[in-house]
Design a protein that fits this description.
mainly alpha; two-stranded antiparallel sheet; 8 strands; globular
């Protein structure tokens, strides 16, 4: 399945708070047109449709393709999408991306001068917790249906759906923990309208996410056996690998051994291998690349229409003299927004032409290369041509506005990098020789042979942060990676306009997490602002 089938399912998200003991409150409305949790999930299609909504909340702003039924009110519905907000938080705040539009919130993002009233800080936060609320409601409602499932839906299938919903909730909470630290917390046990969420510590949230991912493993489909773009056991292992790699930051205790354990599970499953062509992982027919992609977010230009998914990544990075139509498969012009900083490209890619390392997929014709003098001039800086809405045979996607290119949320390339870094950081259960083999496998794909192989002596943490940049740029990793390596804030690593200064300047460590939005602090007296804001 190339795109999710979104059913017109109305999920009851508001629960009436009452002290009445009458059982009449549990009756189904007489009017058959009124939908509640008691009858909305009365068919197997409705139940899988509710699950599809949870998946779709990663990249879609609402349930209507005409953008007039958004989940979150915003002047630009594209900015109310999880993937677009997460991408901006992970990329625009770093050396990998600088935006030319001059939007105040994005200028603050790249300059490291955001506050608790920053538009994008608030939209990201709201999107995460709206998505968590959807997951909680679905889990609550399907749990209530387990004793009376509709004909045609088995208990084991329903439990699998629940496990997938719990995975998505754990994923969104992992993002909240990464970005905001100590956050409000609620599960399906907390009825909306009956309580004010309490704040959970980052360390305790880490334990919760870990416990959920461990608990659902046996309920999920075996690796690479679920329907395309749906969660399976390998996706669970991949999120655990990522979680444990960042455990020192999130919880204060390193878990590199566990990172190796779950990386090994994916590799040992034998279901995944590196796709032979790096560029094809980011093209309109990458749904065929199931050899490497463990879990994608499925896109379809006709059925999954949004300005906040890969459509945003591609359009916002195209402009200048690029041939938007023939080269990128999108409507003429592009949005002329995002490009790479000079610092990132020259530091990470010794040869930025792509003639040696084929991951250097940049466009430079007509661009002024070198330090960026004016962030609002799109013609300054390297343009990324990594993501395209054309197939591996050069055919444009089905729609020249909304793209067909799926987003790989987890892929084997990341798992190889996680394993190698965890070994370098002292994790047990792996070895340096195997780590070197995995890194050289990535580089041999990139170089088309062994010309880019490194030696054991070259494999160190300084190399690893650059290799992650080469392999994973513009895939929503950079901010988290730089924080883990101690390079996101401070002055040991500077890039164009870090600290809102042309040549870059040191920034304060409190920026390693975003502030809780001022609006939520006003609504919830249980919340305490993060230090430094």
């Amino acid at each position: 399945m190339k795109s999710y089938k979104i059913f017109s399912t109305l999920v009851a998200l508001t629960v009436l708070s009452t002290t009445s003991c009458t059982k009449k409150l549990n009756t189904v409305p007489i009017d058959p047109l009124v939908k509640t949790s008691g009858n909305v999930y009365d068919t197997p299609d409705a139940i899988i449709g509710g699950l599809a909504k949870l998946y779709a909340s990663i990249g879609i702003s609402g349930q209507n393709s005409n953008f007039n039924e958004p989940d979150i009110a915003a002047a630009d519905q594209g900015t109310a999408c999880f993937m677009r907000e997460y991408w901006a938080a992970e990329e625009v705040t770093t050396d990998e991306c600088i935006n030319a539009w001059g939007d105040g919130g994005l200028v603050e993002y790249h300059g490291g001068i955001w506050s608790d009233e920053n538009l994008y800080v608030g939209l990201m936060y709201n999107r995460i917790f709206v998505n968590i609320a959807y997951c909680n409601e679905y889990i609550r409602d399907i749990n209530a249906k387990l004793g009376s499932l509709p004909s045609g839906l088995s208990a084991s299938t329903a439990q699998q759906y629940l496990a997938e919903a719990r995975f998505l909730r754990a994923y969104f909470y992992e993002c909240a923990m990464d970005m905001y630290g100590n956050v409000p917390f609620a599960t399906e046990a907390d009825l909306p309208g009956t309580f004010t969420p309490k704040q959970i510590s980052r360390g305790d949230l880490f334990k919760y996410v870990e416990s959920e991912l461990l608990a659902i493993q046996t309920l999920l489909a075996a690796p690479a056996t679920n329907e395309y773009a749906r969660i399976d056991e390998a996706a669970d292992w991949a999120l655990l690998s990522r979680l444990y790699l960042n455990a020192q930051v999130f919880s204060g205790t390193d878990r590199y051994t566990d990172c190796i354990t779950y990386s090994n599970k994916i590799i040992a499953s034998g279901k995944y291998s590196l796709h032979p062509n790096y560029q094809q992982l980011f093209l309109a027919d990458n749904n065929a690349d199931r050899d490497e992609i463990i879990l994608p977010f499925a896109e379809n230009g006709l059925n999954t229409q949004s300005y906040g998914d890969v459509t945003f990544i591609i359009h916002a990075g195209v402009g200048g003299s690029e041939d938007a139509t023939n080269e990128f498969g999108i409507s003429s012009g592009g949005w002329a927004g995002n490009r790479m900083t000079n610092t990132f490209v020259t530091k990470v890619f010794p040869d930025a032409t792509g003639k040696t390392d084929q991951r250097a997929i940049f466009y430079t014709a007509g661009q002024t290369l070198g330090p960026i003098a004016d962030p609002t001039i799109f013609a300054e800086g390297y343009l990324s041509a990594k993501w395209k809405n054309v197939t591996s045979t050069g055919v444009a996607g089905s729609n020249n506005t909304f793209v067909d290119t799926d987003f790989p949320l987890f892929r084997l390339g990341e798992v190889y990098l996680n394993y190698a870094e965890a070994v370098l950081r002292g994790g047990a259960g792996g070895d340096a020789g195997t780590a070197l083999t995995y890194i050289n496998a990535l580089r041999e794909r990139a170089y088309g042979g062994k010309a880019g192989d490194i030696t054991a002596g070259q494999l160190n943490l300084s190399f690893m942060i650059d290799e992650r940049g080469r392999e994973l740029y513009w895939e929503m990793f950079r901010r988290t990676d730089l924080i883990r390596f101690g390079l996101f804030t401070g002055g040991s690593y500077l890039w164009d306009w870090k600290g809102n200064v042309k040549g870059g300047t040191a920034t304060d460590a409190h920026l390693n997490i975003f502030p809780l939005p001022a609006s939520d602090l006003q609504l919830n007296s249980n919340l305490k602002q993060n230090p430094g804001y």
